[in-house]
Amino acid sequence: MYFDDYFVLSDEQRDRLRITKALADKFAARAAEHDEAGTFPHENIEALRESGYVTWTVPKAYGGLEISLRELLLHQEQLARGDGSTALAIGWHVGMILNLRASHAFPEPIFQTICESVMDKGWLINSCASEPATGSPSRGGRPETTATRVDGGYRITGRKTFSTLSPALDWILVTAGVANSEEVGEFLVRGQDVTIVETWNTLGMRATGSHDIVMEDVFVPDAHVVTVKHPKEPSARNRDGSGWLLHIPACYLGVGLAARDFAMKFAATYQPNSLPHPIADVPHIEEKLGQMELKLLSARTLMYDLAARWDSASEADRPALRPLFGAAKTQATNAAYEVVDLAMRVVGARSLAKGLPLERYYRDVRAGLHNPPMDDVVFKMLAKAGTSPFRQ
């Protein structure tokens, strides 16, 4: 297998990676079924709960393992080699816990409540901010979801799109404009209080459960109000540099690795009767295989290096890494897309068959181009960072 131990730094990481490898093998066996039907893999999520994986990024103070960002990426990449949809979906939960752990963005009583629920009951959390009219929250639009002040809290009404992991969420961080003001708030909503509208029917990542969620006059007590602020004030969640979002490129690199493994095995074992050797020894096939290796090695090395830098950086220094994390995401998702394309060229026309996983990998990696940050945002950040020393 491709450099399976190359990025592993300790025996403890290797032992935990065996757990995620076993999970990934199980997920792979049913990935095609969920992809075909567009169904949410509840059994995969339950297995992640039972294994304890959903608790691994919880702080040690609350009973978790408090694994590093770099180690988290190892596991996310491995899970995606089995099923990209499951990996991407659970990545938002484990990544968000790490983000809240590092940014201290939540009032401690709220964060403690969340962590204890994860440890005791395997509860899951994600942030749902995208809306039909505003698109991605990274573009800065004011949410149309509205929070109205009432005695003891707020009542929230609105609709969120791209709500990944929605069928399994116990906690949902919701952004909403505060009625009769310019302020925007973040509110912790219980999953049981929202209605899921099953709208997710897409080309790739079909089993992430990224449906719409609808809130009709949902009451949020003051104890679950995270923040209410002016919209131009930056989110406290961003003050860690957003390194946790590397779970996204890790997922797509995992899909790319799965495609790479399939193509390598095929090339090493397929020998048409017109050749005295497997096609792996045909020069143009060999070149494609080598290109795949280089693209994956380059993207993975950058991602893991930046994750290690984030792990060792002080809280004050982490925000400066933000443009580099965007660069890692853009390089990784584009590399994964190119690797799957090369794998399909190696395998040939049979790569289009529904009975083989390559066509699913091809559709899944396409989705990575539309996960944040988008390429244009990354290029803008890098350009500004590069030109800033020369500006008057």
Secondary structure layout plus pairing:
Layout: H1 11-37, H2 42-51, H3 69-82, H4 84-103, H5 108-121, E1 125-128, E2 146-150, E3 153-163, E4 171-178, E5 184-190, E6 195-197, E7 211-221, E8 225-229, H6 247-269, H7 283-312, H8 322-347, H9 358-368, H10 375-387
Parallel strand pairs: 1-4, 2-4
Antiparallel strand pairs: 2-3, 3-7, 4-5, 5-8, 6-7
Helix pairs in contact: 1-2, 1-3, 3-4, 3-6, 4-6, 6-7, 6-8, 6-9, 7-8, 8-9, 8-10
InterPro entries: Acyl-CoA_Oxase/DH_mid-dom, Acyl-CoA_Oxase/DH_mid-dom_sf, AcylCo_DH-like_C, AcylCo_DH/oxidase_C, AcylCoA_DH/ox_N, AcylCoA_DH/ox_N_sf, AcylCoA_DH/oxidase_NM_dom_sf
Domain Acyl-CoA dehydrogenase/oxidase N-terminal: 18-99
Organism: Alicyclobacillus acidoterrestris (strain ATCC 49025 / DSM 3922 / CIP 106132 / NCIMB 13137 / GD3B)
